[in-house]
Amino acid sequence: MDIYRSAIDSVEQIIEARNRVQLSCEELGFDVTERLQVTTSMFELGKWVLEQGGGTLVASFRTEGDDLLIEMEGLVPKKLEADKIRSLLDGTGPATSSLKGIPAVRRLMDRVDVNVLESGETRIVASKSRAGTSKKLAKNLVGFLQEKFRSLSKPSVYEDLRAQNAIIAQSLAMVEEKAQELERKNAELHEVRQDLETSNRDLHERTAELQEALLNLGDRTAELTAQNRRFSSVLKHISEGILVTDSVGMVMEVNDAFLRMFGLDRESTLRMGSADLCRVLGQYTSQDSAAWKSAWTKLSREPDAAWTAELTVGDRIVTCRSLPIAGAEAGPSLGRVWFF
């Protein structure tokens, strides 16, 4: 059923069409936001028709299943090209915006279609539906509105003021809705700020813990450095020969007394493994290198065992003692220290 149908050649006719649509939406039960969307779209569609040099503006409603649809149609005696239609819908043409004209209608309504008819006319149809409205109610409203608009050639001053007041109320409702949304956003920002403050506190605590750990590490490093200096001093000045091997028999440290005792140099000794030591030390005992290898194999199987042997170095007897180097917390042996 048509709510309004008229040729458009003045702004007053557009206002009349908008007021008719406003009253219809109110009677049909559209909420405040929907009424504002429909009336704004009707006004923008009418302006577009007028800007094209005039044409026809139609507003109607119909049922579609259980839904009630209100449709608006603008018809102008011009044939728009495809690229102009796209720019018209997208708001990409010159001096266009998504807040004005047909782009605004497309944003506010459920559906907008643009067609070029065989007659050379261009038609824009916009629609919005209200779900859940029964056909029976729609038919009753049809009869009611037909009788209502039959008696109205133009809306009265009272009706015009009523429509304007309704639009103002709708605008206020939208402003209130935006204010509520802004309040929700502020609450979310407040929560984010609190989370950031908590994270900053945690980060500060972790930084303090890390600084304390670094200080402890520095103290421990200084302590180990001092211990290494003392150990090096002991190795250098002790009269006994000292040899330190790791868990697989590689020489890790040796003092000058050991090097002098067996006529070795530090560089080559630090490259020795268990087989090299068996060969060198086997020269100073009645046992051959194979016997030393057998003894070394036994020590490998029993890393916590002590071992003693006698060597003849020149004209004197040298006692060789081998002791395990215990790991931390009763762990596996870290290697062996040899005293000569």
| CATH fold call of the largest domain | Heat Shock Protein 90
Q: Which CATH class of the largest domain is shown?
A: Alpha Beta
Number of domains: 2
Q: Note the main sheet.
A: 5 strands, antiparallel
The pLDDT mean sits at 78
* Low-confidence residue ranges: none
Short description:
The chain has two domains: 2-187, Histidine kinase-like ATPase, C-terminal domain (Heat Shock Protein 90, 2-Layer Sandwich), CATH 3.30.565; 230-339, Beta-Lactamase, CATH 3.30.450.20.
Task: Please explain how this structure is put together.
By secondary structure, this protein is an alpha+beta fold. The chain folds into 2 domains: 2-187, Histidine kinase-like ATPase, C-terminal domain (Heat Shock Protein 90, 2-Layer Sandwich), CATH 3.30.565; 230-339, Beta-Lactamase, CATH 3.30.450. Helix content is 54%, strand content 21%.
Secondary structure layout:
Elements: E1 2-8, H1 11-28, H2 32-51, E2 55-64, E3 67-76, H3 82-90, H4 101-108, E4 111-116, E5 122-130, H5 135-150, H6 157-237, E6 242-246, E7 251-254, H7 256-262, H8 266-269, H9 274-282, H10 289-301, E8 307-313, E9 316-325, E10 335-339
Antiparallel strand pairs: 1-2, 2-3, 3-5, 4-5, 6-7, 6-10, 8-9, 9-10
